[in-house]
C-alpha cells in the first residue's frame, strides 16, 4: 500500500514538473540544468583576472533576495546568475525578446537580412547592448545585471529552437509524445492558450538534458567537466565566432535535427509575432494532429547536438568575458 502511494506521488510530481516546464518556456532556453552547465564550463576557461572580476562583481551586487527564483539559489555566483534573466522577465517584460531570434526555418545565411528577424530587439541586439554595458558603464549594479544577462543569453543563443521559428513560437506550439508521455493541455492562469506539454521546445530545453543526466549519474559539475574534457581537441575551434554566427549555426541545427528528424516534418509556415499557440489559425491544434512522437532514436541524435551546443556556449561565454573584461579591454574603455 505504501509503495503504491509512493509511486502515485512520484508520477504526480513528474506531471507537475512537465507542466511547469511548459509554462516557463518561450524565453527559458536549456532550463535550470542546461544554463548551469554552460556557466560551469565557462568558469573553467576564464582567465584568473577575469574570474576574479566576475566573482567580485556578482558577490558585491547581489540578486534581490525577494525575487522568486525558478531554479533556486546556488552557492557559485556565476552558476546562480545563469538563470536570473528568466526570473526577472515578469518584472521587466521589455526583456522578453532578448532571449531569442526568430530566423525562419527556411532562411539562408547570406541572403536573409538578420535585422528582419529583430524588429523589436532580439538576442543579438541584447548581447551587443549588455557587452557594451559590461565594458563601459561606471555603475557596478548595471554592470552586474549586464553580466547576468550575458551569462544567460549566450546559453540561449546555443539552443537551436531559440534561433529559429516555423510559425510555432520556436517549437512551443508543437505538441509531442515524449518517450510515451502524451501531450496534455496546459492552462495559464486558468485559461487555455493553445499550450501543450510536453512540446518540442520543452524537450530540447529540459527533458532531453535531464535524460542525459540520468544516464550519467553524478553532480552537475561533474557532468559539465565530462562535456568539457570529452571535446578538448575541438575546444579552441569552438571558442571562436561572433554571436551572429552562433545563431545561424543554431538555426541550421534546428532545421536539420530538431525539426528535420521528427517522424512527420511539420509544414513550413511564415514566421509571425504570436502571443500564444492559439494564434496562426490555432497552430498547436493543427500540429497536435501530426501526432509527433520522440523516441530513443530521435533523442540520441538530439543528445549529440545538445552536448556540443552546451560545450560551445560555455567556451564562447568564457571567450566573450575574457575579451570584454581583459586588461586590454579595460584600458580601451577607460
CA-based gyration radius: 20 Å
In what order do the strands lie side by side in the largest sheet?
1-2
Mean pLDDT: 89
Poorly predicted ranges (pLDDT <50, ≥5 residues)? 1-24
Q: Which structural class matches the secondary elements?
A: mainly alpha
Helix content: 40-55%
Distance between the termini: 69 Å
Q: Please write the string of helix (H) and strand (E) elements.
A: HHHHHEHHEEEEHHHHHEHH
Strand proportion, as a percent range, falls in 5-15%
- Outline: globular
Characterize the biggest β-sheet: 2 strands, parallel
Helical stretch count? 14
Number of strands: 6
Task: Please give a structural write-up.
The chain has helices spanning 2-23, 31-43, 48-60, 77-81, 84-87, 123-136, 140-156, 200-215, 220-230, 235-238, 243-258, 279-288, 296-325, 327-333, and strands spanning 103-104, 164-165, 177-178, 184-188, 191-197, 293-294. It is built from 14 helices and six strands. It is 54% helix and 6% strand. The model is unreliable at 1-24 (pLDDT under 50). The strands form three sheets. The protein has a two-stranded parallel sheet with strand order 1-2. A two-stranded parallel sheet has the order 3-6.
Amino acid at each position: 500500500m505504501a509503495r503504491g502511494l509512493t509511486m502515485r506521488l512520484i508520477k504526480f510530481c513528474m506531471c507537475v514538473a512537465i507542466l511547469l516546464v511548459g509554462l516557463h518556456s518561450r524565453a527559458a532556453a536549456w532550463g535550470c540544468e542546461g544554463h548551469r552547465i554552460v556557466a560551469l564550463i565557462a568558469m573553467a576557461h576564464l582567465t584568473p583576472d577575469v574570474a576574479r572580476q566576475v566573482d567580485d562583481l556578482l558577490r558585491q551586487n547581489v540578486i534581490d533576495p525577494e525575487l522568486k527564483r525558478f531554479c533556486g539559489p546556488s552557492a557559485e555566483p556565476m552558476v546562480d546568475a545563469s538563470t536570473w534573466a528568466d526570473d526577472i522577465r515578469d518584472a521587466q517584460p521589455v526583456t522578453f525578446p532578448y532571449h531569442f531570434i526568430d530566423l525562419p526555418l527556411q532562411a539562408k545565411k547570406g541572403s536573409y537580412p538578420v535585422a528582419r528577424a529583430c524588429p523589436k530587439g532580439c538576442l543579438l541586439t541584447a548581447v551587443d547592448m549588455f557587452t557594451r554595458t559590461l565594458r563601459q558603464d561606471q555603475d557596478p549594479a548595471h554592470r552586474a545585471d549586464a553580466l547576468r544577462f550575458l551569462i544567460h543569453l549566450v546559453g540561449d543563443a546555443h539552443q537551436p529552437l531559440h534561433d529559429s521559428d516555423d510559425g510555432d513560437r520556436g517549437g512551443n506550439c508543437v505538441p509531442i509524445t515524449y518517450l510515451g508521455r502524451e501531450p496534455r493541455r496546459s492552462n495559464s492562469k486558468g485559461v487555455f492558450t493553445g499550450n501543450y506539454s510536453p512540446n518540442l521546445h520543452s524537450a530540447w530545453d529540459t527533458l532531453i538534458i535531464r535524460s542525459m543526466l540520468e544516464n550519467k549519474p553524478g553532480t552537475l559539475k561533474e557532468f559539465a567537466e565530462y562535456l568539457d574534457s570529452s571535446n578538448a581537441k575541438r575546444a579552441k575551434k569552438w571558442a571562436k565566432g561572433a554571436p551572429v554566427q552562433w545563431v545561424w549555426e543554431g538555426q541550421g541545427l534546428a532545421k536539420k535535427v530538431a525539426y528535420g528528424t521528427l517522424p512527420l516534418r511539420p509544414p513550413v509556415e511564415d514566421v509571425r509575432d504570436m502571443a500564444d499557440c492559439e494564434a496562426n489559425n490555432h497552430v498547436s491544434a493543427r500540429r497536435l494532429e501530426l501526432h509527433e512522437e520522440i523516441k530513443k532514436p530521435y533523442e540520441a541524435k538530439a543528445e549529440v547536438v545538445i552536448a556540443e551546443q552546451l560545450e560551445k556556449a560555455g567556451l564562447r561565454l568564457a571567450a566573450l568575458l575574457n575579451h570584454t573584461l581583459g586588461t586590454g579591454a579595460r584600458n580601451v574603455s577607460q
